[in-house]
Amino acid sequence: MATATAVLPPGPRPFFPGANIIGIRRNPIQFLTKIAEEYGEVAYFKLGPQPVFLLNNPDHIRDVLITHNRNFMKGEGLQRAKRLLGEGLLTSEGEFHLRQRRMAQPAFHRGRIAGYGSTMVAYASRQSSNWQHGQERDIAREMMHLTLAIAGKTLFDADVETEADEIGDALSDAMKLFNYLTLPFSQLLERLPIPAMKRFKQARQRLDETIYRIISERRESGEDRGDLLSMLIQARDTEGDGTGMTDEQLRDEAMTIFLAGHETTANALAWTWYLLSQNPEAEAKFHAEVDGVLGGRTATAEDFPRLRYTEMVFAESMRMYPPAWIIGRRALNDYRINGYHVPARSIILMSQYVMHHNSAYFPDPDRFDPERWTPEARETRPKFSYFPFGGGPRLCIGEHFAWMEGVLVMATLAQKWRMRLVPGHPVEMQPIVTLRPKHGMQMKLERRQP
Fold it and tell me: How far apart are alpha carbons 260 and 377 in whole angstroms?
């Protein structure tokens, strides 16, 4: 007879062994959304032999990410992501993660990020000047190119813009092939000479060559350029053993920032331009703010807090299409959620996409409405009803950087351009590590006058 401590939450019972694995691989967002809608705030299901708990309540998510965070480690997906990212801030654990974060944190101080504003605007202006009225462009690719160049310059003071397409393609290959790394027996698959694994290794090698080249050049020059890499090279763990980072540790942090510092923001921007093209009233209000605040001049970091509606548009875009769409944790010890028993080694899933579309907190969740992000509206919702950057000790270190970059890039490009989705272009989500537009975002450029 089961004891009270062994009570499990409700959840789907598969029709046949492996049905849940097929469902979550075929369409993970649809699979998890359906479970949340049918079974509520805490749901239980199995992926093969692995017990999984899906949380769809802000308080339960807060408890896992903050209150009891020491009882959890990163989930299986990010453990396997180490084959690409190594032991960077996104994947490392425990004391090592705390050490690396302590050393990296000063580089992301708000005052330092404000100094990056002019570079963000300059690169966005350069991108804008390459566009022509009536052109059709894949805006998803354009935003990838732009944010990669910004990440290279602001974080590493390296002009990778000339290599942006090649690096972007390598990153894209690595991301697409990431799914293979989450398959059962992926360690065996990686050893086999199959084309997918060969492309993944080539992509990783291309990225490594770029990162190690930048590190080597910086170490040889000994120059402090005031960027993240300079700070990481010079950083010492004053609260620990006083040592600095090896080249491998620098590579892992740099690779993580290259990925997180451009991939997520690029996706957020691509979805934002799509949503604006489909919502002319919000687009008109956005353009009016940009014209009123900037008056035709070049944006600066000082304009960031004045572009309130622009920030609201960006926030609503990340609600509807969160770039980081799911977080996974593994329980180190037994745990209880809402009276339910969570055995040690269980996986806990918290999906930003599912939570952000919870009608209890966001009525009519499929409607694009930037007014959800007025200060008054924010106050009505619990904190973890919206968590595009995670939370707790693992909160994205570059959150403020991403907000500033998104807003300044939006304002700069919108001064001269509006974008219209090419008729018939398919818009579909591709939830891999990040939430990409599966078919890109083919849009027609229309020149506008402020």
Answer: 29
Token code pair at residue 32? 């998890």
CB 45 within 8 A of CB 20: yes
Q: What is the pLDDT of residues 78-91, one digit of tens each?
A: 666 777 778 888 77
Tell me the whole-structure pTM to 2 decimals: 0.90
Q: Closest Cα partner for 77 from 28, 149, 43?
A: 28
CB atoms within 10 A of CB 347: 19
Q: Tell me, what amino acid is at 354?
A: V
Looking at this protein, which amino acid is placed at residue 446?
E
Residue 381: which residues within 8 A CB-CB, separation 6 or more? Answer: 58, 361
DSSP summary character for residue 162 = G
Give the H or E element holding residue 136. strand 136-138
DSSP 247-258: HHHHHHHHHHHH
Residue 282, classed as helix, strand or coil, is: helix
The four Cα atoms 289, 293, 299, 302 give a dihedral, to 10 degrees, of: -120
Region for 57 from its dihedrals, namely left if φ exceeds 0, alpha if ψ lies in -120 to 50, beta otherwise: beta
- Phi, psi angle pair for 348, to nearest 5°: -110, 125
**DSSP letter, residue 301:** G
- Cβ burial of 295 (10 Å; 0-12, 13-18, 19+) is exposed
Rg (CA), the chain: 22
Alpha-carbon span 244 to 271, nearest angstrom: 39
Q: Per the structure block, which two tokens stand in for 356?
A: 């952000």
pLDDT band at residue 113 using 50, 70 and 90 as cut-offs: confident
Measure Cα distances from 105 to 89, 228, 251, 256, 401 in Å. 11, 10, 17, 14, 12
Give which of 25, 19, 76, 27 is closest to 45, Cα–Cα. 19
pLDDT band at 271 (very low <50, low <70, confident <90, very high): very high
Q: How far apart are CA 131 and CA 114, in angstroms?
A: 27
Q: What's 166-208 look like in SS3?
A: HHHHHHHHHHHCHHHHCCCCHHHHHHCCCHHHHHHHHHHHHHH
* CA neighbor of 121 nearest in space, from 270, 302, 264: 302
For the record, the structure tokens of 64 come out as 């896992």
